[in-house]
Amino acid sequence: MNFLPNFVKERRKQSGLTQVALAEKAGVGLTVVRKIEQGKENLSMAKVNQVLLMFGHKLQPVNLKTNEKSNR
Q1: Each residue of 6-49: pLDDT tens digit?
Q2: Which of 28, 37, 48, 60 fits a 20 to 30 Å CA distance from 19?
C-alpha cells in the first residue's frame, strides 16, 4: 500500500516542489500532502485527487464485482 505515498513524493521531488509548494499549487492544506506521503488512511478522495491532478492522475472507486469477473 506504499504506491500512493511513494508516487506523490517522487513526483513532487521530480517537479522540484517542497511539500508546502505542492500544497499551495494543489489548493490543499500542507497536512493533506504530509498525510498522503506518510501513507495515512483516512484521507478525502477529493483532496487526494486535487494533489494527484497536479501530476495528471486521479483515483476513482473500483467496482470489485466487475474487477473479479475480468480477472477470471
Answers
A1: 999 999 999 999 999 999 999 999 999 999 999 999 999 999 99
A2: 60
Q: Which three cell numbers stand for residue 18?
A: 517542497
The 10 Å CB-count burial string (b at 16+, else e) for 27-65 is: ebeeebbebbbeeeeeeeeebbbbbbebbeeeeeeeeee
Query: What one-letter code names the amino acid at 19?
Result: Q
Q: Domain residue spans in the chain?
A: 3-70
**Taking CA 21 as the corner, what is the angle to CA 15 and CA 22, rounded to the nearest 5 degrees?**
65
3-70 under CATH 1.10.760.10, yes or no:
no
CB 51 within 8 Å of CB 22? yes
Report CA 69 to chain centroid distance, whole Å: 27
